[in-house]
Design a protein that fits this description.
The structure is a homodimer.
Chain A lengths: L4 E7 L3 H11 L3 E2 L3 E3 L4 E7 L4 E7 L7 H6 L4 E9 L2 H10 L11 E2 L5 E5 L9 E5 L1
Parallel strand pairs in A: 1-5, 6-9
Antiparallel strand pairs in A: 1-6, 2-4, 3-4, 4-5, 7-8, 8-9
């Protein structure tokens, strides 16, 4: 069912410091920051030859990554995103196998303008997994 | 400097349970387990179209992932591995920018038979980063 690894997301406290780590220290191609108020984050995209890294900084008072950064003050790897061909079919198949979908269970439009879902880390080896319809 | 994302590693308590999550629930292609006593882990490789996921289970009494699993009993995303063309040159460049290399600072032969290094998470946004010579 899962296809490409769409991205790995790293939560950070300070996006400009974080961007500089990837740009200057690791020599990677880093985009300009993009505020996504509806997702509670500001994001930069790091383009690698085969996938992307996303750096996420909290935006607003109700950011979904605020708690993670309280527990991980240096930042840390927040989630991994796999592509699926049909997110509704993927969701139904996962739920039938006992996996839990976070939130309402209905796909939302994600940071790339495509439908996404998040799966419960306890059902996926402690890793927060996002599914994105490719 | 960094090239492809070689893999994302997820530390798990039970490799057979974890393999089944990826094989049966997520419908991915999962290899047979491979014991790597010199690295203190048993590993399975999950082949995605553009990269790999590695599931790591502790092997032996001195496994480098034992502490991580004490803190994260459900498992969790342990590290990300970027490819570099020349690991010695990459190491020298990183050290000149103030980044810390774990261990002796000398590359070791990693799970894929290629030279690898690990970088200090505090210098890389809280994420443990492995570099592998491609």
């Amino acid at each position: 069912m899962i296809g490409r690894l769409n991205h790995v997301a790293i939560a950070v406290r300070d996006l400009s410091v974080a961007s500089e780590v990837y740009r200057s220290t690791l020599g990677a191609q880093v985009s300009a920051p993009e505020a996504l108020p509806e997702h509670g984050v500001t994001v930069v995209f790091i383009t690698l030859p085969n996938t992307k890294i996303e750096l996420l900084e909290p935006l607003g008072s109700d950011s979904p990554i605020a708690k993670f950064l309280e527990k991980n003050p240096d930042g840390g790897i927040h989630h991994i995103c796999y592509e699926v061909a049909d997110i509704g079919a993927a969701r139904d198949q996962l739920v039938s196998k006992g996996a839990r979908v976070l939130g309402s269970g209905e796909p939302k439009i994600g940071a790339h303008g495509k439908p996404v879902l998040f799966l419960h880390p306890k059902d996926f080896l402690g890793a927060l997994v996002e599914l994105e319809q490719a």
